[in-house]
Amino acid sequence: MCGIVAYLGKKEAYPILIKGLERLEYRGYDSAGVALFNNGNLNLYKKQGKVANLVEFAKDKDTSGSLGIAHTRWATHGEPNDRNAHPHFSGNESIAIIHNGIIENYDVLKEELKKRGYVFKSDTDTEVLVHLIEDIQKSEGVKLSEAVRMALMNVTGAYAICVISKDDPNTLVAARKSSPLVVGIGRENDFYLASDATPIIEYTNKVVYLDDEEIAVVNLEKGLKIYSLQDEEKTPYVQELEMQLEALEKGGYEHFMLKEIHEQPRSINDCFRGRLNSVEGWVELGGIKEFEKKFTKAKRIVMVACGTSWHACLVGEYLFEDLARINVEVEYASEFRYRNPIIEEGDIVIAVSQSGETADTLAALELAKSKGAIILGICNVVGSSISRITHAGSYTHAGPEIGVASTKAFTAQVTVLTLMALSIAKKKGTISESKFRTMLAELEAIPAKVSEVLKTNDLIEKISAQYKDASNALYLGRGSSFPVALEGALKLKEISYIHAEGYPAAEMKHGPIALIDDEMPVFVVATEGPSYEKVVSNIQEVKARKGKIIAVVTEGDTQVREMADSVIEIPATDEHLVPLLATIPFQLLSYHIAVMRGCNVDQPRNLAKSVTVE
Ligand code: M6R
């Protein structure tokens, strides 16, 4: 939610900042803005809408300068308009700030500042902070970094901020709490700051991930210094980025989402590479190895997540319960954190998150940790907040996911959960050797089978054309295909704005069946497996009410083909692995329908990729 980027060095900042904003636009696209220091002035340009609007607006303005901050916004406090766009100036316009997060006590501070004569030009919580910094500087006579530190001592909430002042053009001050911030250390005594590493990667691979309540003071003479909020100096921990620049480009595809759907054979392979061997018969997740014993003794696993990641957890529930015989509860992180949940000794809490920054998931984990649980993470973004607060975890290695709609992140999360469940089942002896080896071999075969499914793209495009004008859609599945139905419905609604619901197929007759008429498309996962016949009966129930059936079936199926209006075949696989294949036609379907409806596939309205507010 909101992307921030900043530069201090010798190069022209503006092109670096704009490119950075374009990379971070997935975090919000309500407005964009930039503040640049040049010739003793801070030039501020901001515009409602996407970065492209800002570029158009600033094209004949003075955009020179080697110190600058820039922001792309996902609105929380105040409408998405020019006025509320960041950066924000302090009262005397000597200080500019960008902010990702929410200042929770902003109204109290605002009232105090108003009494002291500050005039607010926006409805944002952020503006409070910049006035407060100016106020402290004036009253205490301290330098910028100290004023920022003192101001932050007075705020509650979440923030990643960058602050510059025209009175100190050699310095950039940044800080974080619960919102991410990375400092890139350039090769030419220059510094790049951003919400994630994507704007930094082409300039340097040396980065420092700020921790909560840390302040980074970047100075052209003194370099990077890090302090705690209590003003203790800390030694920066410099890490090397492994991200590849190509991963951030569309690579010839029209949209990131389509590219990411097509990357899945590779991303799933990257996810299990080096972690399993079906010939030697082993699976190992290095990140959680030291917790294996605790896993084998655990009576309960609680999985916390939001959105698509929550759906992956539901698939994980089937895997862990069936293979490793451990009771699993899957919780919406936002509900879990406010419910005073019961955590017992030995409970393991696993957070699943693509970004590793989702505010509710992070808070749920913190709560579980405070109650004594072992907390583990399954994240995609390396160095993210969740990956750093957990006791241990496994990365999904799916590579950067830029499209707001999750696709490859979901299949990678399911792959890691499968590996985890298999390794614990093996340790516990709840899986036979032959079943274990068969599943490993099946998992190794999944990337090639995903490639097969991707070949149905043209067929799916034709099916999409038939249903692109639907107002509603139902998605049905049983067993671990129920989460696939939920995920299919989420994909359709979030990018094409068609109302869609996912249901366990048998639940349909307890209400949703009333919706079915000859215009209602019903997407069903009807693959081989123990519940196949039951799903066939559910399809009959839809047909009897003249609903349109679009079924995902196992290659060679004849029974459903006779009943369905359209079928999409996927290769046969172990029933536990069906979600990895069955989800792909639904991703493609949503993609094509959204394109046909003229929707912005990669940046759907009102959404942001990384939800760092609750
Ligand atoms: O980064 P996370 O996986 O924690 O994000 C959770 C949800 O916001 C996310 O899965 C969202 O539902 C998807 N982008 C939707 O496609």
Summarize the structure.
Helix content is 36%, strand content 24%. It has 614 residues and is of the alpha/beta class. The protein folds into three domains: 3-247, Glutamine Phosphoribosylpyrophosphate, subunit 1, domain 1 (4-Layer Sandwich); 250-453, Rossmann fold (3-Layer(aba) Sandwich), CATH 3.40.50; 455-614, Glucose-6-phosphate isomerase like protein, domain 1 (Rossmann fold, 3-Layer(aba) Sandwich).
Structure commentary:
α14 (433-454) runs parallel beside α19 (578-596). The protein is built from 19 helices and 27 strands. A hairpin with a 4-residue loop joins β13 and β14. The protein starts with a strand and ends in an 18-residue tail after the last helix. The longest helix has 22 residues, at 433-454. The chain folds into 3 domains: 3-247, Aminohydrolase, N-terminal nucleophile (Ntn) domain (Glutamine Phosphoribosylpyrophosphate, subunit 1, domain 1, 4-Layer Sandwich); 250-453, 3-Layer(aba) Sandwich (Rossmann fold), CATH 3.40.50; 455-614, Rossmann fold. With 614 residues, it is α/β, with parallel strands linked by helices. The strands form 5 sheets. The chain has an 8-stranded antiparallel sheet with strand order 3-2-4-1-10-9-11-15, covered by helices on one side. The chain has a 7-stranded antiparallel sheet with strand order 5-6-7-8-12-13-14, with helices on one face. The radius of gyration is 25 Å and the shape is globular. It binds 5-amino-5-deoxy-1-O-phosphono-D-mannitol (M6R).
